[in-house]
Amino acid sequence: MDRIAVISDIHGNLTALEAVLDDIRQRGIRRIICLGDLVGKGPRSVEVLYRCMEVCETVVQGNWDDFVSRDNFEPSVLWYRNQLGREGLLLLQGLPGQTTFFLSGQLVRLFHAHPTSLFKRVYFNGAIGQKESMFEPPTLPGTLAIPQVSDLVGYGDIHHAYIESFSMKTLFNCGSVGNPLDLTQASYAILEGKLGSCNDAPYSISFCRVQYDIEREIRIASESGMPFLEPYVRELRTARYSRY
């Protein structure tokens, strides 16, 4: 059986990312897919970007990755753009929007928010019609263009881990590594099955929670001069959304 760790929404929180990567190593998992939002919110976007490019088999683009990398000269966004530099911004711009593969006979698609948009948001308590749209063939650029609906879909964006099956299909959200908004522990998912196989076989989806040193991350953020410090600190400590 092949195992794939699915991570998302690190948001410049290198402390949480390293804790999750250590947990993935301890489990002996060698394949990692990242579903975007590497940058923004936290203090170390550039370190997170290059760490993910180093260890992840695939990194797809998130909404923060998109709008930070586009020409945007608001002071708060400029802080992140100046951190990343030209090379980092070009890396973010070049990320695919989705990845597609077969796992134990399931057509799997992983993306940040929605198969047709980085900015279309589907919550865990959203309407069934919204969730059904998550299985549409993607229009975002990526691997293995197959014009048929998905069997198994995973995404990030909402920072809230969950899994749901309906209409003979399965939808899951891997949660957030660096900015979880359901529990204060970092979250990621593990897919297990026969990678690349179109034949039905056993497969599984599991969720992992990893404790990390939140106060250390807050100290680093406080010393960085980053924008949005107060809401960032509140979110790390409470796992509740704060308006930016």
UniProtKB/TrEMBL annotation:
GO terms for molecular function: phosphatase activity. GO terms for cellular component: cytoplasm. It holds the Pfam family Metallophos_2. InterPro entries: Ap4A_hydrolase, Calcineurin-like_PHP_lpxH, Metallo-depent_PP-like, Pesterase_MJ0912. Residues 3-192 form the Calcineurin-like phosphoesterase domain. Belongs to the metallophosphoesterase superfamily. YfcE family. This is Metallophosphoesterase. It comes from Ethanoligenens harbinense (strain DSM 18485 / JCM 12961 / CGMCC 1.5033 / YUAN-3).
